[in-house]
Amino acid sequence: MKLRTALTQYPFNTLCQLARDVGIDPGGSNKTILADALCRILPDPENVAKRLSSLSQEQRAMVQTLAAEGGELLEAEAVEKFANGFLPRLHAQLRDLTGLVFRDVHTLGDSDVLIGIPESLLKSIPIPDADQGRLLVILKPVSVGLLRAFADQIGLRPSDTRKPIVSNAIRDTLLDIKTLHAYLNTLSEDRRAILDLFLPANAITRSEVADKLGESAVRELEDMLWKMPIFYAPNRDLHAPNAAIYLASDLCATLSKIAQSQGGQLENSLETLLETSIAPAAIRENTAFLIQDLTTLLGIVTQRLPRRLKHGGISKTDLRDANKYCHIQDDPGYIEFLTLFAETTGLIKPHDTVWHTASDAGTQMGQIIDIRKACFDFWFHSERWNEWASDRTKATSARMQVLKNIRSEIVRSLRHCPTDTWMKYPSYYQFLTRLSEPFRHFAKDPSHTGTTADELLRRTITGALTYMGVVRVGNFPNFSTPLQQSKGAVFQITPAGYALLHDTHDDALTEQISLQNSDAKFVVQPNFEVLSPPDLPCAHYLRLCVLGDLKTQDVMACFHLSSDSIRRAFARGLSGDEIRSFLTQHSASGLPDMVDTLIAECDDKYGEIEILPAIGRVKTATRELLDELYAQPRIAQALDDRISPTIATLNNTANPESLIQILQQQGYLPHLSQK
To answer: Which of 27, 138, 518, 524 is least enclosed, having the fewest CB within 10 Å?
Structure first.
């Protein structure tokens, strides 16, 4: 606040009286002349001291308090601080302090009036030692750009970005214990340790920081001095090498209160960092579905024999179709994770260009504990499961090594966490940052990865750790927001997760999972549907995937038998008697006549048309059947010459698989020979 600007806001009569009080004869002077004369007289230190001595104790305290706050307060705050909320009382106090404390309606406008002491007077007002170096005094000379950047750093988004407004918002935030505590939790361990050094003496030097915390902390301190306007150096340049650095006194007092509540330090012990929560209303847990969904995937592979991609894996189209039957349908990464695990552990194997289910897959799936531990080991060591990118695109070997190191740190931290306790994700992030040096280093500088530590951690918790049933998450949508906005995100380590993290052979690994029952039977219905219970042996489930088409997968799996599905079973080498025997032996309802008739009809018709792509021939059981094929244009265009009553040559442009589809659409059951 400038003295001349403040004086011009007074009426002429007030200026005349103020002039008389300081020994100036206002006679014949105009407002401008009086203002010039007062600007020369009022700032004189002797005049300021004389004016202060003439004030009552209450008035002097008001002036000194205002000076300690940098010489300016918003009127709304001054009313509460000096007049108990009564504006007329404040105005009366200001009249008694005319020429010393002014009411400025021009700088911010009528809506945000400033109460202040001009700078030329302010430097002559003594401030008690206890009130030296308060936040507003430190913030006053700081550029508005740095203030705005610092406001953003502490989580403020003020709609009014004028300097006095931003300064007051910063002060209010940092002097509030709750919001200051939240800000401290966002700082690195080194920065909190540096602030701890200020609490006993309120002043430190760079050499003291180096001796107690090391050179890395000195570099952190330098960065804090440039970016955090909460420090000062009395009568010296703050950035001078040997300067004693002070922390804002009112901020230091608030920090001391927080430290006292935590046993004397700002740096919490690891045990107190984790914040717990009540059980959330919405919980995502996959423990009961992992084995079921993996079995479903094996069934889809058994049924469809999907094509193997050049570098391994299954096409996106086939994965989307399989994902429709899984518990987690809104995350395409889930079915990809199961596929990579099945491929890596040999549950599915490539034959030529297609995938087949391993012959012992049914037996392996019965060993639930071994499967779950193998799944955890796969995630822990795999370089094929990439959490750097949301689409899991292939990463370099160097980046994957970094990722495996971070997985190791996450597992180590989870071993320190309580089981069956809901933990707030932001507090776990701080816990992991404190516990793990590699993760802390990555969190400080993620630039070489393109992914923040927060994003990677959220992706890991809601991804593989949830897929495997290591954790269950609450308020799942909150995990899609960044750290500062994910306060509602919580998670809990499951009993099975504890067993996996600590590598124990625990019965908890089979809890909530339907164990295979060798006596379990399915139900074959007259409408050609087969209902499979969850405890059906995996080998029987996989056989049903050959005989029928999976329609729904819930508590019971539902398959539909058709001529196409029976033909597929024949193509896999099963006979009609073998199909009939399997359904009869393992059905709780026997074999309905309708189903038996379907099998018999397919058995009679299957192989009447045999396609031999290796020699480019089509062979039929009778002359009449080949005549019938030539009579159908869509089929005839794939055929060339008839070289015998029952054999025709294939057109050079004909695709055997397309021809099979056309024949099936016409009601035939062709056989594709591999001879």
So the answer is: 27
- For residues 347 and 291, give the distance between their C-alpha atoms in angstroms, rounded to a whole number: 13
CA distance 40 to 523: 105
Q: What are phi and psi of 402, to 5 degrees?
A: -60, -45
Residue 308 DSSP one-character state: B
CB 258 within 8 A of CB 175: no
pLDDT at 267: 65
Residue 625 has pLDDT above 90, yes or no: no
- Residue 208: pLDDT band by 50, 70, 90 thresholds? confident
SS3 string, 415-465, reads CCCCECCCEEHHHHHHHHHHHCHHHHHHHHCCCCCCCCHHHHHHHHHHCHH
Q: Are residues 419 and 308 in the same domain?
A: no
CA of residue 472 relative to chain centroid, distance: 15
Amino acid letter for position 174: L
Torsions phi, psi for 263 (to 5 deg): 90, 15
Q: What is the pTM of this model?
A: 0.60
Determine the length of the chain: 675
Residue 545 lies in a domain: yes
What are 495's two structure tokens?
């009993």
Query: Contact, 474 vs 491, CB < 8 A?
Result: yes
Q: How many domains does the chain have?
A: 6
**pLDDT, tens digit, for every residue of 557-612?**
999 999 889 988 888 888 899 999 999 999 998 999 999 999 998 888 887 888 88
- Alpha carbon of 414 to those of 31, 270, 489, 588: distances in Å? 75, 13, 16, 46
Domain extent, residue 636, equals 607-672
* Residue 356: C-alpha distances to residues 277, 301, 305, 561, 658 (Å): 46, 6, 6, 21, 22
Distance CA 549, CA 300 (A): 9
Reported as a single tens digit per residue, the pLDDT across 460-470 is 999 999 999 99
* Average pLDDT of the residues of the chain: 87
587 inside domain: yes
| Backbone dihedral angles phi then psi of residue 518, each to the nearest 5 degrees | -65, -20
- Amino acid identity, residue 375? C
With 80 as the cut, is the pLDDT of residue 332 above it?
yes
| 189 and 231 housed in the same domain | yes
pLDDT band of residue 541 (cuts 50, 70, 90) is very high
Q: By the 8 A CB rule, do 570 and 671 touch?
A: yes
Compute the distance between CA of residue 121 and CA of residue 492 in angstroms, rounded to an integer.
Answer: 61
Across-strand partners of 74? 114
